[in-house]
Amino acid sequence: MTSPLFLRYRSLKTTALNQTHRDMMAKMVDFGGWDMPLHYGSQLDEHHKVRSDAGMFDVSHMLAVDIEGQDARAFLRRLVANNIDKLTQPGKALYSCMLNPQGGVIDDLIIYFMTESHFRMVVNAGTADKDMAWMQAQRDEFAPGLAITPRRDLAMIAIQGPNARVKVWKVIPGAQAETEQLKLFQAKLVDKYFIARTGYTGEDGFEIMLPSTDAAEFWNALYAAGVVPAGLGARDTLRLEAGMNLYGQDMDETTNPLESGLGWTVDLKTDRDFIGKKALLEAPVKKQLIGLVLTDRGVLRSHQKVAATHAQNEGEGEITSGGFSPTLNKSIALARLPLNVSPGDEVQVAVRDKALRAKIVKYPFVRNGKILMDVA
């Protein structure tokens, strides 16, 4: 009789690098229906390697979507909260949220300008089906001639760390000349490689799309050049230290970007209308996303309740993302708290049956290998 565990494994989606991860003895886990590497032996070592040298992540579970047609820009002007008109140079990228009419976050994503009739979007794996359905519904109503094409034929590999770009240049002939002058949030097509200077770790590096059929060879070439494989565990601690939101934890369809530390991605200054704008303008902002550093012993986790300890700072909040920071050697978190608290204030976090002390700080906690705050 076939075991339920075996059937569950067989039902998981896999990337083109699945067997490569297994050959490297990765610990594989179910990540939102995808069979993905958690680590390759030591999550801690992988984290430190990205901060000090270079690591690579398989992010092929995320979905690239090509949006093509003469109405592409007009469609995106209405679809996302950030101003797509900022994109005028080929390869330029824009980070934005896609909102529902209530102002909640359907997903956070990156949009690349290819040509005036062709934009490329990268959406999260766990929301990909929902995103496609939402975009197709909006397309059918407002831009029926537009083509929206999911690109599951592409693999995506993120190479991150202070030495990441140099090591990529060793592997891709001609890449240095083409990408050395790329600024952050710019991309360039070099042969079969779509090379973007973006990332989710707080370190420099590239996120590269290429044909799935070439992914394993490219991964192994990077490994031979000294880039270490890293899994989901290190990716999460790195992004938390860098103060980067995780969809489903720090924001979702029930929270708006103005209360999720993403106000900088929302264009409320121009006359451009977009889905969710009316709701954002009408709803008063009551909370903010802010950083915490635990001063007692313990570990901060999502959904733990947070209370201010000063009488003038009444109100409660909740941790959205939390964990141990390998770089700071302390527990840190992002939390949604009332507007009347500010950096330097002390709060109490309910951890099981204890109230642990934590200090409010500005995030990010770490960027480009540097600790950005006093952690004494």
Question: How would you characterize the overall build of this protein?
Answer:
This protein has ten helices and 21 strands. By secondary structure, the protein is α+β, with helices and mostly antiparallel strands. Among the domains are: 4-55 and 153-241, Probable tRNA modification gtpase trme, domain 1 (Gyrase A, domain 2, 2-Layer Sandwich); 286-371, Aminomethyltransferase beta-barrel domains (Elongation Factor Tu (Ef-tu), domain 3, Beta Barrel), CATH 2.40.30. The strands form five sheets. Strands 10-11-12-9-3-13 form a six-stranded mixed β-sheet. Strands 14-17-16-15-18-19 form a six-stranded antiparallel β-barrel. Helix 3 (43-52) crosses helix 9. The relative contact order is 0.14.
Offer a quick outline of the entry.
The chain has 376 residues and is α+β, with helices and mostly antiparallel strands. The chain contains ten helices and 21 strands. Among the domains are: 4-55 and 153-241, Gyrase A, domain 2 (2-Layer Sandwich); 286-371, Elongation Factor Tu (Ef-tu), domain 3 (Beta Barrel), CATH 2.40.30.
